[in-house]
Design brief:
Length: about 250
């Protein structure tokens, strides 16, 4: 992990027709976002889901890499014809799409020379100058090009690789959070929440999320901040609001 920086953000780019068609349910966004926040102090600020279309991949990679500190892509780095992520990223950054010497050796050793066919060799091709993200599950590595970290779409494999991304990242300050579950409706607290958010708009994010639990309607108030002091101040005001309005708190 590189030197700590106060505010570091990222985007996640999910690449795959199977996600858009509904055939496959994405499980990577929540995992990556949670890992980045808890382990690296990096906040995910945007998520996009796009098809396996070269022009669309190129445009999104170029746009997001300029907008955020890091971009995490998932999917499209396998052995088949529709796995075009690596080639598209090469074109986005205008570098050669070529065999990575170390990746080639890793895969050749893993499969053996006789079974190291053209499809498997393809998984060793990536943008020139890429650094590897090692894969302890199925050998085929991901890679980092510029500020874009490219990972596979299979959740179990991605999960096993994520810790190997850490050495390429600048650590940010951890975003602390607190959740207050209330038996009330959003309209009952909307005005007061708006006033509190306005007061702390530069230091604390306040989210309001309705729920239906145990036959009752409620609202989860989630507060997030780098500053524990500010977070405590906001939650003190929220508890005061709860007391004034005589709202019941849901306790687990």
């Amino acid at each position: 992990m590189k030197k700590k920086n106060k505010k570091v953000n990222a985007a996640i780019l999910i690449i795959g027709n199977e996600i858009l068609s509904g055939r496959t349910q994405d499980k990577n966004v929540a995992f990556i976002a949670n890992w980045l926040n808890l382990k690296c102090g990096i906040s995910v600020s945007e998520v996009r889901v796009i098809p396996d279309v070269e022009k669309i991949i190129i445009n999104n990679v170029k746009e997001l890499s300029k907008k955020f500190n890091y971009v995490f892509t998932t999917g499209g780095i396998g052995p088949t014809h529709d796995d075009i992520t690596a080639q598209s990223i090469s074109k986005a950054f205008k570098v050669k799409y070529e065999y990575h010497v170390e990746a080639y050796k890793i895969l050749e050793s893993y499969y053996g020379k006789k079974k190291f066919n053209e499809g498997r060799k393809k998984m060793a091709k990536m943008p020139e100058g890429s650094k590897l993200i090692y894969n302890p599950s199925s050998a085929a590595p991901g890679f980092i090009t510029k500020n874009v970290l490219t990972l596979p779409g299979v959740p179990l494999i991605l999960n096993s690789m994520i810790e190997n991304c850490k050495k390429y990242l600048i650590k940010g300050s951890k975003v602390n959070s607190k959740t207050l579950n209330l038996y009330t409706v959003e309209s009952n607290i909307a005005k007061a929440l708006g006033s509190i958010q306005k007061k702390y708009k530069k230091s604390v994010d306040i989210g309001s999320y309705p729920f239906f639990r145990l036959g009752k309607i409620g609202v989860s108030i989630v507060t997030r901040s780098i500053s524990l002091t500010k977070l405590k101040s906001v939650n003190k005001e929220l508890l005061n609001l709860v007391k004034i309005k005589n709202i019941k708190i849901l306790k687990y």
